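Example 417, ligand adenosine-5'-diphosphate.
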Amino acid sequence: MARLVLKFGGTSVGDIDRIRNVARHVKREADAGHDVAVVVSAMAGKTNELVGWCRQASPIHDAREYDAVVASGEQVTAGLLAITLQAMGVNARSWQGWQVPIRTDGSHGAARIQDIDAAEIVRRFEERQVAVVAGFQGLAPDNRIATLGRGGSDTSAVAMAAAIGADRCDIYTDVDGVYTTDPRIEPKARRMARISFEEMLEMASLGAKVLQVRSVELAMVHKVRTFVRSSFEDPDAPGMGDFDNPPGTLICDEDEIVEQQVVTGIAYSKDEAQISLRRVEDRPGVAAAIFGPLADAGVNVDMIVQNISESGDATDMTFTVPAGDLDKATAILEKAKSQMRYDALQSESGLTKVSVIGIGMRSHTGVAATAFKALAARGINIKAITTSEIKISILIDGDFTELAVRTLHGVYGLDKA
Ligand code: ADP
Ligand code: ASP
Ligand code: MG
């Protein structure tokens, strides 16, 4: 028999009926004789509510106490699922992060898992006990609860799969797989049978929130066979318990993909902001003077464009930050103005970064030109561009998000027939 990790996201455990449905998926695998560890998220909306309460209590708050509050959502779901499983006759026990323990580093609010001691959970597999583990949380070196950053239950699941040597990690969510773009904004998006780790990593880091970036990294490094699949289907429908070929999208090595497209998918990330520093002194060390303090403050700087101005002694520096960090970034730059000597700071929020992703871009030319032409034909202005070997990212006005995603999806032939 095999060993499985099953992860259920917020919508999948959104109310007691849904938890009951989730329990049927778990029971199906346990009845088949597999060792089963389940990782759960907080009920849909719960984490946002908890984050909101922290902000209401005080806009600036201690990250340890934030973690104490927001980790509670997963604790509730783990207990409720264990109760539901027990009522169905399944031997189940809930585990909070510290009880396993799942050890993390000390970056409260955005901690990384360092080690999972799953010996006790594995021992209980021999007693046919199902482990129901609270996702998103672990134990930091200061002996306090730490959370893994939004969407972190995916990472808990993949890390748990690596720790117990699972044959498969199934990420159950509210869509039935990974699509060529977010099916919520492009109904013509197609579900992929497989996607490579590298492309999934790009999709996730460029905004496709179906998997947390870190979970894909871990799956790639530890070679965890990871499927994205739907929790809403009838748990006992034919094929649902198929061990080798479960329904959904397999995240796998590039060489496991037979038909490779040039462009695999389109991702987008809303709520970007752009900052331009006009006429910054053009001398060595200027970029370090700008981006050093931002990095120290934990501001994630993304697309960076530097223009040489006509005179040659000054340069314009433009870059993006998450809109939520704009005020913080502006304050830092204004404070450090004397060291950088720029003429003016301009900023704009409400922007979106749309990205075209595909491993095939390595060996094909003209992919970027196609995107620029298609966006121009729709009257969508491009504010900044960055590229890498397997992606092109384009910054646009947020009002054009849906139009841009659909346009790019169509122009690369990704629309379903
Ligand atoms: P969960 O609560 O299960 O973790 P999330 O809301 O975090 O679920 O992620 C699932 C959502 O990701 C889907 O509802 C979908 O709208 C969104 N999504 C964005 N891009 C994609 C994509 N390329 N394929 C599938 N889903 C996507
Ligand atoms: N509940 C957490 C969040 O909403 C973690 C997760 O769902 O993955 O971010
Ligand atoms: Mg998620």
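Summary: The pocket of magnesium ion (ligand 3) is lined by residues 9, 151, 154, 209 (CB under 6 Å).
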